[in-house]
Amino acid sequence: MVALNHTGVSHKLFRLLGIPGLEDKHMWISIPFFISYVIALLGNSLLIFIILTRRSLHEPMFFFLCMLSGADIVLSTITVPQALAIFWFGAGEISLDRCITQLFFIHSTFISESGILLVMAFDRYIAICYPLRYTTLLTNSLIGKIGVTIFLRSYGTIFPIIFLLKRLTFCRNNILPHTGCEHIILARYACDDIHVNIWYGFFVLMSTVVLDVMFIFISYMLILHAVFRIPSKDARHKALNTCGSHVCVIILFYGPGIFSVLTERFGRHILPHVHVLLANVCILAPPMLNPIIYGIKTKQIRDQVIHVLFPKEI
């Protein structure tokens, strides 16, 4: 059994409760968690396999989609198995080091996905506004450099959080009412001043996710400006249709996150389990639905998926 709060003691072991207030329903809650994880794992793995093995899909847009699918697999794998272990076996005990490791990968992967969505918006901007220069501008070498930059940015901005948490003394409590570890949630259980953690977390949010959203918005304003200058109605429709999947994924990624932040900030009378469920939706929904959205709305991928799954019917 995990030790409870003792004055002057810095806890090195914590206990995740899962969904607070709904412990008796954990077995039922685990069903959508498990299904979404299996779909995310299979869907994104299939997407990566198809993009890497089909030369017809060796284009910048699909390489960026491959990066997004890889990030989706990582985000799901570092969160959902931990939640399922709590739901099925009550295995909520987690060491401080493991907790910090988990939140490091959660936050860095989330920032990586945001960066990938920004680059995908940039990709659509070039494809629509400079179609003749598309392949010459977005070379494989540049795509590789962009990918490295995205991941260096995400890991570099989150890395200081490890030391900001390590310096704290956790003597308040060691019961975390959540399915996983997050920076500010863990920091609030420290007896020390956490203003540095709060302000650094705010800086990371503004300099990565918020900045990405602004640039994505600017990209689509430029795209719309270019599209509505096209004289042909069919050409306009075709140009907008190429952005459809990306716009759906953007809404799916940022929508629940913004709503969760707003409820966390202003919804003080909302029950704790609602906050936890919303936080999990932010992690569960995009990895599960992204491959489905691209599989349905992108003809090249849809055709290749059908060819792989039903080869004898082609």
Could you characterize what this model shows?
With 314 residues, the protein is mainly alpha-helical. Helices cover 73% and strands 3% of the residues. It is built from 11 helices and 3 strands, in the order βαααβαααβααααα. It has helices at residues 26-53, 60-77, 80-89, 96-129, 134-137, 140-166, 183-187, 195-227, 233-266, 272-297, 299-309; strands at 13-16, 93-95, 175-176. The protein has a 3-stranded mixed beta sheet with strand order 2-1-3. α1 (26-53) packs antiparallel against α2 (60-77), α2 packs antiparallel against α10 (272-297) and α9 (233-266) runs antiparallel to α10. The chain is globular and about 70 Å long. The chain starts with 12 loop residues before the first strand and ends in a 5-residue tail after the last helix.
List the keywords.
314 residues, 3-stranded mixed sheet, mainly alpha, 11 helices, 3 strands
SSE ordering: EHHHEHHHEHHHHH
Quaternary state of this entry equals single chain
Radius of gyration: 21 Å
Termini separation (Å)?
58 Å
Low-pLDDT stretches are 1-6
Strand content: under 5%
Amount of helix: over 70%
Across the major sheet, the strand order is: 2-1-3
Return the average pLDDT rounded to an integer.
89
Offer a concise description of the structure:
The protein has about 325 residues and is mostly helical.
